[in-house]
Design brief:
The chain is an alpha+beta fold. It has seven helices and 17 strands. Helices cover 29% and strands 24% of the residues. It has an eight-stranded mixed β-sheet, sandwiched between helices. The longest helix is centred in the first third of the chain and has 23 residues, at 15-37. Bound molecules: 2,5-anhydro-1,6-di-O-phosphono-D-glucitol and manganese (II) ion (MN) (2 copies). Belongs to the FBPase class 1 family. It is found in: Cytoplasm. One of its GO terms (biological process) is sucrose biosynthetic process.
Length: 323
């Protein structure tokens, strides 16, 4: 089985990008180690802090954020990082070529119950020209991403990675190496499985209520077949399932926070996951527009997300267009 860096070299990926991905994996391995020991390493439970989005931080949200920030900013290739857990972007080498955004720990409500969590990342390049250090360096649409991926910390740790030429998966071996285990992953174009938090149903738009209602009606409804449902409350785990066997995942707009476009974050969740799904032949949308074409206005911007098997995503978009 091939080592991550050998595989990327073989694919003729830019050597600086390979070095950056190796650095990211150094941090993810450290996070995987901390997670493995759970209660024994004293990292479970909540902290006294609230992040910029008003969410109570888990101890591990903070630890994972600190590990990623330190390891990345120690690499002179990195100009700056933007994180779900930081108020503003944090800068390193002014000559650095890359910008990295990340959700240090996705699905963190699952930590204390020993269910899968993950780290999501996206790599951008510093735009050409002279720029001062500021959040605005990061405000590039998802189509500009050089690479994106996640590490799922489940029963085993898996990296799903795209550098814009398909999606490959690497499993973390006991030796500390990520080894190629799934090459050229593709999302089946149709599916009979969906993932959505049904408890928010009464806050959705009518089009979403109709669409999910028809899935639930199964063989008695207009879709004329039965659908299965999953909700892990960890986007990394949901996207991993979809990359593995297809499916549809949505966290749509809802009226609990009418001024907010959605719950998930465009730069740390929406864009990297959209790049992975599209690179595997799936589709990703706000229900109306392609997520990767959104011009971000601020780094913590939120977005409605529906992604997965292409034909099912297109069906969901038709419900929204028709409404
Ligand atoms: P995070 O743990 O980084 O805040 O993200 C959690 C996200 C996403 O992973 C998941 O799909 C969703 O929030 C779960 O939200 P609900 O608890 O509202 O179902
Ligand atoms: Mn998240
Ligand atoms: Mn998070």
């Amino acid at each position: 089985m091939q080592l991550l860096s050998n595989f990327l070299k073989h694919k003729k990926i830019d050597s600086e990008l390979i070095e950056l991905i190796d650095t990211l994996m150094l941090a993810c391995k450290e996070i995987a180690l901390q997670l493995r020991e759970g209660e024994l390493s004293g990292v479970l439970g909540i902290s006294d802090n609230t992040n910029v989005q008003g969410e109570t931080q888990k101890k591990l949200d903070i630890i994972a954020n600190e590990v990623l920030k330190k390891v990345l900013l120690d690499n002179p290739l990195v100009r700056g990082v933007a994180s779900e857990e930081e108020d503003h972007a944090v800068f390193g080498n002014p000559e650095g070529r890359f910008l990295v955004t990340f959700d240090p720990l996705d699905g963190s409500s699952n930590i204390d119950i020993n269910v899968s969590v993950g780290t999501i990342f996206s790599i951008l390049e510093v735009p050409p020209g002279e720029h001062e250090d500021s959040d605005s360096l990061f405000l590039q649409p998802g189509t500009q991403q050089l690479a994106a991926g996640y590490v799922l910390y489940g029963p085993h740790a898996v990296l799903a990675l795209t550098t814009g030429d398909g999606v490959n998966m690497f499993t973390l071996a006991h030796t500390g190496d990520f080894l190629l285990t799934h090459e050229d992953v593709t999302v089946p174009s149709t599916t009979r499985e969906f993932a959505i938090n049904m408890s928010n149903q009464r806050y959705w738009e009518p089009a979403m209520r109709d669409y999910i209602g028809d899935l639930i009606a199964g063989s008695d409804g207009p879709r004329e077949q039965n659908y299965n449902m999953r909700w892990i409350a960890s986007m990394v785990a949901e996207v991993h399932r979809i990359l593995t066997r297809g499916g549809l995942f949505s966290y749509p707009w809802d009226s609990r926070n009418p001024g907010q476009p959605g719950k998930l974050r465009l730069m740390y969740e929406g864009n990297p996951m959209s790049m992975l799904i599209e690179q595997a032949g799936g589709a990703s949308t706000t229900c109306y527009d392609r997520i990767m074409e959104i011009q971000p206005e601020h780094i913590h911007q939120r977005v409605a997300v529906a992604l997965g098997s292409r034909e099912e995503v297109q069906t969901l978009m038709r419900y929204h267009q028709d409404s």
